[in-house]
Design goal:
By secondary structure, the protein is mostly helical. It is 77% helix and 0% strand. Helix 3 runs antiparallel to helix 4.
């Protein structure tokens, strides 16, 4: 069922990752642009796989946990990149990139909460039969 609330949370995480890819176009340190592009494409693919594996909730949780881990690594890389910019993170136009990964992580965590809630509901209905 694609109309579940966790599908909306996962879709919001995919959109946040897409925004990260759009805003992070001026990476020049340590091959950052290539790493950001590869990781965001991988995260988008993982998110879409997670959305369309709605019949297998355990796989959905596993894919979301993998996406959360990759987002955490991405946040670390983005903060490292921001610290090495000239001027640091004092300028207001710098520093929006880690926020998108953080939003994606929060959305994926909420999706996992609702997936586990569905799993408990299915188990309780199975006990009644």
């Amino acid at each position: 069922m694609l109309q579940r609330i966790q599908t909306i949370w996962i879709l919001m995480a995919v959109v946040a990752t897409l925004f990260l890819n759009l805003t992070a176009q001026d990476f020049d340190i340590l091959g950052g642009k290539l790493m950001i592009n590869i990781s965001t494409v991988f995260l988008i693919i993982l998110g879409l796989l997670s959305i369309f594996s709605f019949k297998n909730r355990k796989r959905q949780i596993l894919l979301n946990k993998l996406s959360i881990f990759i987002n955490a690594l991405l946040i670390g890389f983005l903060i490292y990149w921001l610290q090495n910019l000239p001027g640091g993170i004092r300028f207001p136009e710098k520093g929006i990139e880690p926020v998108f990964s953080l939003i994606a992580m929060i959305c994926l965590l909420l999706a996992n909460v609702y997936i586990k809630k569905d799993e408990r509901l299915v188990k309780s209905v199975d006990r009644l039969r």
